[in-house]
Amino acid sequence: MEDIGTSYSTPLVSGLLANVLNAFDPAPSRNLAKALLIHSASNPSGEGPDDLHYYGYGMPDTFLRILHASQSSAMLVFEDTLQPGYILELDPFPFPACLMRNGKSFGRVEMTLAYEPPLDPAAGLEYCRSNVSASLGTATIDSGGRLTHKRQVGPFPDLSGKGYERSLVEQGFKWSPVKRYQRTMTKGVSSTHWRLRLELLHRSGERPAPQPFALVISISGEEGLPVYDDVVAALRSHASTDLRLRSSIHASLDVDLG
């Protein structure tokens, strides 16, 4: 017999989420637990532009893989609260030195952003009342001597969202409380100055309020490259700490607390 429905996956995902919540001491926030779980998900059959509507972000990985880090990869976790009217920036972003050469940056970057916006059931399709966006990109100096930011890691899957509001909602994940970004830079990006920006936006008429969020970023390179060590070295210039795991779990994750 064959059937479909989210009720089949809910017990499995709930059990995996419970393992994530139990692995840390103290337990992570709901935003962080959700971001870690979704960050590990993928579609085994590959990703197409229509798959998101049918499979979401895919199937979460095994519990230990969610918490796994190797020398050729590093996972960073940013958890903070965005204040209305302010933009959070991390400049420079700790991009691993081993993935930079000849003035270019290489490697694979994956990002998952999760937050719980205020909700209004009476607002119809506009029930999510705040929007958080993350942009990991490079900084350059333009002809006028101004520092400019260019996003280098776009939304995933790439649904070709344009600048119009409807397109941004349907194809660019605007107002979505979970966002994923991804890019593999095989030919390199012509800059080695990376920066991270997060911005908060509220609906018209909504009273601005602080918005907690969690952002997970994974950076990986070719096997054998010291990506993990380079990120740890770069983080020493920022206020950072490791996530504390319970003694029965052996894994390592780096966390930047903003």
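(ticket continues) Second input and output from the same batch:
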Amino acid sequence: MANSTIKGRAVIFTQGGPTAVINASWVGVVQGLMLNRDIQDIWGSINGIDGIMNENFVDLRAQTVETLENISYTPASQLRSTRRKPTAEDNARMLDVFRKHNIRYAFGIGGNDTSESLDIINDAGRAREFELRVFHVAKTVDNDLMENDHTPGYGSAARFVANAFRGVSLDNQCFGGLYIGVCMGRHAGFLAAASALGRRQPDDGPHLIYLPECDFDLEKFARDAGDVYRRLGRCVIAVSEGIEDATHTPVLQVLSAGGGLEKDSHGNVQLSGTGALADKLVEFLKDRLEKEGAAKKLRARGDTLGYLQRSFPDQSPVDREEALALGRFAASCAQSGNIDGSCAIVRASDNPYRPDYRLVPLKNVAGKTRRMPPEFIGPKQNDVSDAFIRYALPLIGELSPVGALDLTKKVKF
């Protein structure tokens, strides 16, 4: 059994894609550890586990209170990041560094890959009989971590998506036409679903939302869009980058006839980074609706929201406070005799909304993906349900008001 008063240094690192509140998470850890006498120093590793192996550390205790406060409002990771998954050689190197500097506490802020990396490091430490306290602090804009009601980073990214589609819907009212926006989400549709959170009037966009949890059918897609366009003279559509057909083939691959597509470092088809999916979907719908006579020359545009979703400097106030709180919770777990675990957000209450924090086994999160539950998806599989709106709306904070002109107040002659 680990000694609850083990003395040593703590290292904090961030992994994977940044978010608008990832800094708030590690600032929360620092705040929670600051008065603990058993922890001699609090170091930040620059560029995740790469920084540990290269002994590239910054002294976080030496930062001023004002500096840490300002950093907690700052998007993206001030500690930088990496997507490296540790090999056996990497683990050996990190454990050598831990032993050299008496680092006994490791806090990794990241998604399911980060939790998996920490689990691997933890197992390696046990095998070498080096006592470690290893804690994963949940983070991801995709909102796809098991054991979590939602994850820090999602609320702010969802806020951006909601505002982006609210703005583009108002723009679309001016001239009509077709608009398609592609959101992040290879396997989980939470971000595309957030496009619905800015709707206030019955005809507000997005009018259609397509998620990777549902089989995507191009013919149904064309019918759905045509019905909306004929009714309103316009149609705004939100799409997850990971939409697939019934054979689990990415729709971008279907539209590209399987050729000429970029692939990422893992060999997966690059879904949204190039803007190709938005362009292909717009081309498909424009051609179909013009041939069907819905419009002679359809005004049509497509965008890929891309990195804008992750680190836009407009945090959800709820998201920031929860990120700080989860970081402090991770620190308290480490100081309460816990050996390891993943720090997750659970929902204590819906009305009023209230979060709570829980330590769960690393292996419950590591390498696993949470998807949108069926009750969050509309019956026609081209929109979200009221249950999703109730779930997500408290997470994004209050949006600025918008007005709608009463067009019935006509001038009479």
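Agent notes: Residues 211 and 256 are 20 Å apart (CA to CA). The domain at 156-310+373-395 is CATH 3.40.50.460 (Rossmann fold). Closing as not reproducible unless the customer responds.
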